[in-house]
Amino acid sequence: QPWGNHNGGTVLFGPDGYIYLGIGDGGASNDPHKNGQNKKTLLGSIIRIDPKAQENSTQHTSDQPLSSHSTDSLAYSIPEDNPFATDDSARGELWATGLRNPWRMSFDRETGKLWVGDVGQNKWEEIDVVEKGKNYGWNIREGTHQFMGNETQENTTPPVFEYGRRMGGSITGGYVYRGKQIPHLVGKYIYADYLSRRTWALTTQSKEVESATSIKIAKATPLSISSFSETPDGELLVCGFETPYARTGKIFTLVQEHGETRK
Description:
Strand order of the largest sheet: 1-2-3-4
Largest sheet: 4 strands, antiparallel
Number of domains: 2
Number of strands: 19
Distance between the termini: 37 Å
Helix content: under 10%
Radius of gyration: 19 Å
CATH class of the largest domain: Mainly Beta
Order of helices and strands: EEEEEEEEEEEEEEEEEEE
CATH superfamily of the largest domain: TolB, C-terminal domain
């Protein structure tokens, strides 16, 4: 990775038993190496790997330029149904591309959909439902808006929702709520913004961006929320810091109190 920011974010086991990892574009501004649109690198992507290394399976060496599918020994292997598993012009680990800084992501325990909060650069934060082989546009666009040059967006997938700087400046992706303690939030995607210290519930009525609406569920809190987690019964935990640069964090449970949702 060429710079120190936009590092790897969340590591998850998917419903299929494979590991999913969100990786930033390598850092700096504007994605100067165009990693988000380069299938020869793992930067700017979601990858999917099998934690079990299998002899003679499809594998990569860590800095392999593009002899692509080596069988050198690794601690993991590449699932055969990955979108680029047999593509010699791409890294086989790739599940989706075109992401800037997919800091937090989660699977909906009911539908299996992969939700990602991708941190923007200048103007837009975005929420993506990530699917196999899709390109989510960075650095051609930020959110649904043209960002660099005049390259076409027709082969990119737009976010399900975006918001601008009036609402915040660094999205923290959360979870689709599937608990029982807050009935009116069931099925809604809960997320936050680290800088504005706000928390929202996103309702999507279809797959179209225009049909997504955001409902604020808590006023500005004393926490800069850096992460969410989910208990075995589907309730949500919130992790945050008293200031954006504090070293000591706190963990809260999201609960309903006196008819309102509070932390």
